[in-house]
Structures are given as C-alpha cells and as structure tokens.
Design brief:
The chain has 429 residues and is α/β, with parallel strands linked by helices. It is built from 16 helices and 19 strands. 36% of the residues lie in helices and 25% in strands. Helix 4 (120-136) crosses helix 5 (152-163) and helix 11 (287-293) packs across helix 13 (343-354). The mean pLDDT is 96. The structure holds N-(iminomethyl)-L-glutamic acid and fe (iii) ion (FE). Residues 104, 107-108, 111, 213, 241, 244, 289, 332, 334-337 line the site of N-(iminomethyl)-L-glutamic acid.
Length: 429
C-alpha cells in the first residue's frame, strides 16, 4: 500500500539537499543525490531519496519527470530594496564614463524624491512585476527594505506595500529608516535618528527587521546601536548595511547585537572579522554590487572621499569564508548599486569576481541565505518537514547553472508543492 502525496518529482539527474547551515570548510561540502526524487504533501516535503525507493513508496496526484534535469532548493534573497520608483541608469553611465557625480548618498536621495512622489498603486504594481521576475529566476523568499521614503508617511507606505503584496514569493519586510539622512535633515542627524526611533512602534507592525547603514557616509556604530537596541525592544530582528565605503565598526556591532545579518563588508576591519567569524550573524556578500559598480563606489578615509578603489575581491571573500562566518549571497536589488533581482546573476558573479566554488555558492544562496532571514528551519534545504519549494532546472548538473551566464536556466518552480513557474514563465491560474 503506497502513501498518497500531492507531488512526486522523480528521476532528477542531480538533486542538491543543502541541509544544515554552513561555515568555513563546511561551505564547500555539498551533498549531491543522483537519480533522485522528492515527495511533497500538504505543502511540505515528506521524503527525499532515490527515485526507485520513492516510486514504490508513494502514490502521487502529480508526477513530474525530472530526468535530464537538476533539482535544487529555491533561492532565498535576503537583501533587496524591492519597493522604489525611478531608474538611475543615466547616473550609472555618467559615473562609468568618468563624468563626476554626487556621492553614493546623493543617488539615494534622487531615488527618495521619485519614490515620495510615486502613487502607492504604481509602487505596488512595479513591486509585483519585479517579484514575478525574481520568481521566474528561482527566488521564492525575498527580503524587502524600505529606505527610499525617509519620512513618516512614505516609510510606512513602503512597509505597508511590502507586507501586503499578494504573490507566491514570500516577502519579508525590513524597516530601513536609517538609510541616509533625508534632505530635510542633512544638518541635524540627531533629530533624524530620533524620528527613525519614533517610527519603530508603527514600523514594527509591518516589518520583521530593522536595518541601519553603518558607514562613513551614513550612520555611526553608536547610531546603529541605539536604533537597533530600540528595534529589538519592539520585537524586531536586526540587520545592518555595514562597512561598505570604509570601516565603521558595523560588522562587529552586528555580532555584538546578535544581528541576523551584516551585509556588504567590503571595508570590514580585521577586528570586526574576528568577531563576525565567532558569531551566528550571517555575513552577506553582494557580488552583483561588485559587478555593477566596477570601481565606482568611493572609499571614505577620514571623512574625505578618496579615489575609488576596491580590495582584491577573491582574497577579500576568502578571508571572510576562512574567518568561519556563515556566508550568504544576495542581490541587493536597488536602482543604484545593483539593478538586478536575479540570484542566478549573483551566483555567476560570485564565481567570477569572488572565486567561490560551485558548492560554496549553492550553500550561500540556499540554506545560509535562509538562515540570514531566520528561516533555515523551513526554507533553503530539500529535507522532510521543510516547505515544498524547489527549482527544476533546464540543465542536468549544478555547476552548469554557474558556469553559464546571462540567461535564465530555470524550467519550473514549485512553491508549497504548487507549480508556479513552468517553462521559465509564471503560471497564473
Ligand atoms: O545597499 N548602501 C546603501 N544602500 C544601497 C544603495 C542604494 C542606492 O544606491 O540607491 C546598497 O548598496
Ligand atoms: Fe542594500
């Protein structure tokens, strides 16, 4: 007598389980099952194993033949600025071709102006379009920050939108009131920090996390500590944009606070790296930013913007992995430093620019990325008890997804055992 299940995906040439949060050498220790199958019932995975075993054990309402195909957990994108208005492609071209522009914070203020004047329904419609693209490229859980409003009304509007989007992608909202100083407060940081903190009770109704950009061009570690502690007292988790244009103590602060993640880390200090390596805070690195910004992100030294330069990124990334930190990859989708929402693009950039191995990259976009959103108990792995979310690829082997680049390799995506993408297109019933 076979057990009834809703879905049986069978005959996968390779299946990646990605079970267990990874750090240090464990990041590269990838389990690959061959000729494998997965059974899903009531939205949850009930079994993973050899096709020959599962076929004798389960009777499925829907059987999907994955022969000649790779099956993996779907992606968790733990860092995006999903809801905003306006495109900054002109600014990028001017920087890239050497025409001097305002600093990175100036670009953000341009986006703030566009976002404040945008109608709520336009912001919502644009967010849904981008969620469709993310889903078609394999993402099923996505963090979405506010941070392009920076006034009471617009910040809450962005969080309200992020928390109420009807979509197969699970959206996890984050309050980033402390992104940069908005134009009205450029000369009064303390007043703005007070406003950010005053908004926490309302923001915490919509947002699971609070984020602060701890950086020489934004907020200090002391600002970050005050805001984050207040957020924690309102039941929010903490994440930080940390040390992007210069060392600002953001990464160490994240470890001290028990933050869920610290992100960017391009200018992390040795002392902070030690603290991070010993902590459970996830280190999110962002190769899409490295790729897109080339050498355009300025370095701040003693308050002065220096000629743009960046460290040797493969050695930088290897130091972070070797520190023992839990390393994850995310898009940082935003109109300035990374206008892609494709985790495939991020994987392909991580291989080329950071020289991470295929195995390391797969763990960094699945189980470790899920851990960065405190969801590794239900997302990011193919194991019994987890959500029935997975990708069936158009290629048979996991290295091919990273070795190829520039086009979508997804065939099908399942969310809770439902086929939501087929032939790389969103399915609507
Ligand atoms: O994550 N670092 C701060 N914020 C964004 C940049 C956003 C923008 O350029 O609009 C980031 O890179
Ligand atoms: Fe960001």
């Amino acid at each position: 007598m076979r057990d009834p299940v809703d879905v049986l995906v069978m005959n996968a040439t390779e299946l990646l389980t990605c079970v267990g949060v990874r750090r240090g050498p464990g990041l590269a220790d990838l389990e690959v099952l061959r000729n494998a199958a997965i059974a899903i019932a009531d939205g949850k995975i009930v079994d993973v194993g050899a096709s020959t075993d599962l076929e004798t054990r389960y009777d499925a309402a829907l059987r999907i033949d994955a022969s000649g195909r790779l099956v993996t957990p779907s992606f968790v994108d733990a860092h995006t600025h999903l809801v905003h208005a306006g495109s900054r492609h002109d600014e990028w071209e001017q920087r890239a071709t050497g025409i001097p522009r305002h600093g990175i914070d100036g670009g953000i203020r341009w986006s703030i102006a566009r976002t404040r004047e945008a109608h709520e329904e336009v912001l919502r419609a644009q967010a849904i379009i981008n969620l469709d693209i993310a889903l078609e490229h394999g993402t099923t859980v996505l963090e979405a920050k506010s941070g392009y409003g920076l006034d009471r009304e617009t910040e809450l509007r962005l969080l309200r939108i992020a928390s109420s989007l009807q979509h197969p992608v699970k959206v996890v909202p984050t309050y980033l009131g402390a992104h940069v100083l908005p134009p009205e407060y450029v000369d009064d940081k303390d007043a703005y920090v007070t406003l950010v903190m005053d908004l926490l009770p309302e923001a915490s109704r919509y947002a699971r996390y609070c984020d602060v950009w701890v950086d020489p061009v934004a907020f200090t570690a002391d600002d970050g500590r005050r805001i984050s502690r207040a957020a924690q007292s309102h039941g929010m988790g903490v994440r930080l944009h940390a040390d992007q244009t210069g060392p600002a103590g953001g990464s160490g602060l994240g470890a001290e606070l028990g933050a869920s993640s610290v992100d960017h880390l391009e200018c992390i200090s040795d002392a902070d790296l030690c603290l991070l390596g010993d902590s459970n805070t996830v280190a999110i690195v962002l190769p899409g930013v490295t790729f897109h910004m080339t050498e355009q992100v300025p370095r701040m030294v003693d308050g002065i913007e220096q000629l743009a330069e960046r460290p040797h990124m493969p050695s930088w990334c290897r130091r972070i992995i070797n520190s023992g930190a839990i390393v994850a990859l995310a898009t940082d989708y935003n109109p300035g430093t990374c206008p892609t929402i494709s985790m495939q693009m991020v994987m392909q950039a991580a291989a080329r620019l950071y020289r991470m191995s295929y195995a390391e990259i797969w763990h960094a976009v699945t189980v470790n990325a899920a851990q960065a959103l405190d969801r590794s108990h239900r997302n990011g792995s193919l194991v019994a008890g987890h959500d029935g979310d997975l990708i069936i690829w158009s290629v048979p082997e996991h290295g091919m997804v990273i070795n190829r680049f520039g086009y979508n390799l997804v065939d099908q995506v399942l969310v809770g055992g439902q086929v939501v993408v087929a032939g790389a297109r969103r399915v609507t019933w």
